[in-house]
Amino acid sequence: MVIILWRYRNLLSSAPQSLAGEQKATECNFTMMKPITWLRKITKRGGQGYPVATLAFYGPDDKKASKAVLGIILSKDSEVQLHKWFRESPNADLRYDIKLQNAWIEIIRREGVRSVAMIEEINGCPHEEGQDYPLGEFCPACPFWAHRRRPLEPPATVLTAIATYRQDQWETLLAAAADRDTMDETWEKWNAGIEELIAGLEARSIPYVRVLLDIEEIEQFCEEQGIPNDAKARSNLAIRKAEQNAR
Questions:
Q1: Residue 159 and residue 8 in contact, taking contact as beta carbons nearer than 8 Å
Q2: How far is the C-alpha of 190 from the C-alpha of 213, rounded, in Å?
Q3: Helix 35-44 and helix 98-110: axis angle, to 10°?
Q4: Whether this model's pTM surpasses 0.85
Q5: Are the C-beta atoms of 80 and 209 separated by less than 8 Å?
Q6: Segments making up each domain of the chain, as ranges
Q7: In 3-state terms, the chain is what percent helix, strand and coil (to 5)?
Q8: What confidence tens digit (pLDDT) does each residue in 21-32 have?
Q9: SS3 letters for 170-225?
Q10: For residue range 51-82, what is the model confidence (pLDDT) as tens digits?
C-alpha cells in the first residue's frame, strides 16, 4: 500500500545535474545570494533525481519554527539520514537563522544532492507522538495544533512511503486481519505486486521509502485505537511511522 509522506506532489524528473555541479556554475552568483533565497531557488527547480533532501519546520504554533529537520535520501534503497536542530531562544525562528541556513546548504552540497524539497510553512507540532505524548492524543504542550491540519499546499514534491511486511509474519497477519478476503494468499504474490508498483515509481523517477510494519505493533496500534486490523488501520500506522521517522 502506498502512503504519501508529508503530502507532497510529484517531484522527480530525470535531469542528471547535481547541486554540487550547479555550485561550480553559480559560485559567483551564490556569494551575492541570501542562503534562504538559494534554498527557495533550488526547491523551485523541481525533481532532478537522487540524492534527495527534504527540509521541514515545526513549532508550537504557525508563527515561528522551534525545530528544523533536514532529511537526506542518497538512493532509492537508502534510509533517511536525519539532521535535527532545536532553538535555544523562545523567540527564535529557525527558518531564518542564517548560520543554520548555511549549515543546511553545506550538508546538501556535501552529499551531492540533486533534488530539494522544502516546506517553509510550519508543518506542525515539534514533539513526537508516541515519544513525547501518547499515540492518538493531542500534544499537551502545543494546544494550537489540537484541531488543525498541517499545510495543505506544500511545494511540488513527493516522497512515497510503501508499507511492507515480513515474509515470516504473513500467515499471522492474514489470521489477524479483518480484511483477509481482500488480501493476497501468499507473501510472494503480495510482494510481486509491490515490486511491480515500485518499478512504476522508478520508471517515473519518484522517490520512495519502505515502511516495515511488525504484526505486534499493528495489533497494539489497533487495540489502542479501538479499530479493526484492516487496510485503513495499517495505512494510518504506516503514515505515523513515516512521519515520525521524518522528524
A1: yes
A2: 14
A3: 50
A4: no
A5: yes
A6: 12-145, 159-246
A7: 40, 20, 40
A8: 444 434 334 446
A9: HHHHHHHCCCHHHCCCCHHHHHHHHHHHHHHHHHCCCCEEEEEECHHHHHHHHHHH
A10: 889 999 999 999 999 999 999 988 877 788 89
- Across-strand partners of 160? 4, 208
**Which alpha helices (H) appear in the chain, and where do they start and end?**
19-25, 27-30, 35-44, 98-110, 170-176, 187-203, 215-225, 231-246
**pLDDT below 50 — which residues of the chain?**
1-18, 21-31, 152-158
Sequence-distant contacts of 174-177: CB under 8 A, at least 24 apart: 176/215, 176/218, 176/219, 176/229, 177/229, 177/230
| Residue among 145, 149, 163 at smallest CA distance from 237 | 163
Locus of grid cell 537526506: 72
